[in-house]
Design a protein that fits this description.
Layout lengths: L12 E5 L8 E5 H10 L3 E2 L5 E2 L6 H52 L13 H8 L7 H9 L1
Length: 148
């Protein structure tokens, strides 16, 4: 059986150039090896013995960072959304409570009960003007307050 003159091997090679000082030697290494060194940032040597490594972040590392940033942003906005929801619920409860107090006071006044001394009077307005003048609000002042 004759011995072949050449052997064909299906290995894809990539060329690299040593960037150390004035070296500049060009050499070839398997593509899968380059991919692995870019991923693990492991050191290697050019044919002239200069230690080299790939310091740049790999595509996978960049994507992992982008994913971590996106997840952080998602958490931040989700927490803000939930916080605003809780604040909104609190404001709604506070508004309902304030409306209940206002309704209670209106009913008491309609029934002729003084809001200050809690006694009944036929004319609550006249009683308030005479007995509690500091609590009386004029119509103009009430409208001005309501517009602010």
């Amino acid at each position: 059986m004759p011995i072949p003159e050449y052997v064909e091997i299906g290995i894809k090679l990539e060329t690299l150039t040593c960037g150390h000082g004035g070296c500049g030697i060009v050499f070839a290494v398997p593509s899968h090896w380059v991919t692995e060194r870019r991923r693990d940032h492991g050191s290697w040597y050019c044919p002239n013995g200069h230690q080299r490594y790939f310091p740049a972040k790999s595509d996978i590392e960049l994507l992992q960072e982008q994913l971590a940033t996106a997840n952080g942003n998602l958490s931040y906005y989700r927490e803000g959304y939930q916080r605003r929801g809780r604040e909104s619920e609190q404001l709604e409860r506070s508004l309902r409570a304030q409306k209940a107090v206002t309704t209670r006071i209106k009913r008491r006044i309609t029934n002729g009960v003084c809001t200050e001394c809690h006694r009944s009077f036929a004319n609550v307005q006249r009683h308030m003007e005479k007995q509690h003048p500091d609590q009386v609000v004029s119509a103009d002042a009430a409208l001005a307050t309501r517009q602010d």
